[in-house]
Every structure is written in C-alpha cells, then in structure tokens.
Amino acid sequence: MKIMMIVAMDEQGIIGKDETLPWKLSNDLQRFKKLTVSDGFNAVVMGRKTWESLPNGFRPLPERLNIVMSRDTKWSDDGAEIALYPGRAIEIAYANGCDELWIIGGSQIYELYLTHVEEIHVTRVHTRNSGNISFPDLDWLNWTEEIIEKIPRDGKNEYDTTYSIWRKSVK
Fold first, then answer.
1. What is the DSSP string of 122-163?
2. CB 91 within 8 A of CB 1
3. Whole domain around residue 143: which residue ranges?
4. Number of domain units in the chain
5. Are strands 119-125 and 100-105 parallel, antiparallel or unpaired?
6. Per-residue pLDDT of the chain (171 residues; tens, 9 = 90+)
7. Is residue 73 part of a domain?
8. How far is residue 154 from each of residues 34, 129, 162, measured CA to CA in Å?
9. 10, 125 in Cβ contact below 8 A?
C-alpha cells in the first residue's frame, strides 16, 4: 500500500485559516477527488478538526475509507474509522484492502506522517499571508520536485497555482 500526502499551501507554507481553506480553487478540489478516489479502493486520513470542517454533504468523503485521527477515545461519527496513532490508521487501511493511503491534513496530522510518505502532492497557491495554519517544517532538499501543471487564475480559481509531486530522494 502506497502512502502519500496531498496539500495546498501558499508561498509561505500556509495551509489553512481558522480551520478552513483560505482560498477557492475549483481545479484543486477536482484534482483532490480524482487522486484520492483513483482507480482502486483508497483511504484518506485526517484529523478531527479537518473532518469537522468538511461540509455535511461531503462527510464522509464518498468512495474512500475515511480514517479520523483523534486523541479522544470516546469520539466517533458516522462514516469515520477512528485511529489514535499513525500506525493504527495504516493498519485500518491495510486491513480494508486499500491500494493507497492519502494523508489530507491538518498540520498536526501531516507532521505525524512525514516519515511514512513516499510522495507529497502539492498545489502551490501563488499568494502570501493566507492564514494562520502552516504545513510542518520539512527539509525539501531531501525531496525532488516534478512540476505537473500550472493553472492560471480564472473565475473558478482565485489564484494562479502550480501542482507538483515531491518524491523522497534516494540517498
């Protein structure tokens, strides 16, 4: 099972503003769904705050196993598998026959999985000072970037973006 991250961040590494996305990017949301659903059976891992930030009609995210990380052993919600630690989320996805495990946020969850991922799919939003929640510190020099697509701002996409895939460098 392949473990990957997917994240949108501004030029300063900001990923959120008060537990919401700080921009409107239709192309990025479409890519997110296409990648995380893909051709197989996949899982998404998120923190409880990210889960709760999803609109009611999209919770759980359809066509994917939804795994929510929480330190609260009593927390539960319809459509969510609960995991108290990263290894448990990986076990749940593996036991359910998932082909891919996507880490989708927030910041604390990204940090927990940085050592587990092979790829990070990044949409770089070409703006600054977008919010107050940052992607965790990462030594990007240990990763190689492949730029996949540049999308200009338009009526459905608030900012210019660059989509790239970062792969862990082999030492």
1. EEEES-S---SEEPPP--GGGEEEEEEEEE--BTTBSS-EEE
2. no
3. 2-161
4. 1
5. unpaired
6. 999 999 999 999 999 998 889 999 999 999 999 999 998 899 999 999 999 999 888 899 999 999 999 999 999 999 999 999 999 999 999 999 999 999 999 999 999 999 999 999 999 999 999 999 999 999 999 999 999 999 999 999 999 999 999 999 876
7. yes
8. 21, 20, 14
9. yes
Residue tagged 């970062």 (tokens)? 166
DSSP letter string, 28-67: HHHHHHHHHH-SS-EEEEEEHHHHHHS-GGGSSPTTEEEE
- Contact indicator for 8, 125 with CB cutoff of 8 Å: yes
Residue 119 identity = E
Is 170 inside any structural domain?
A: no
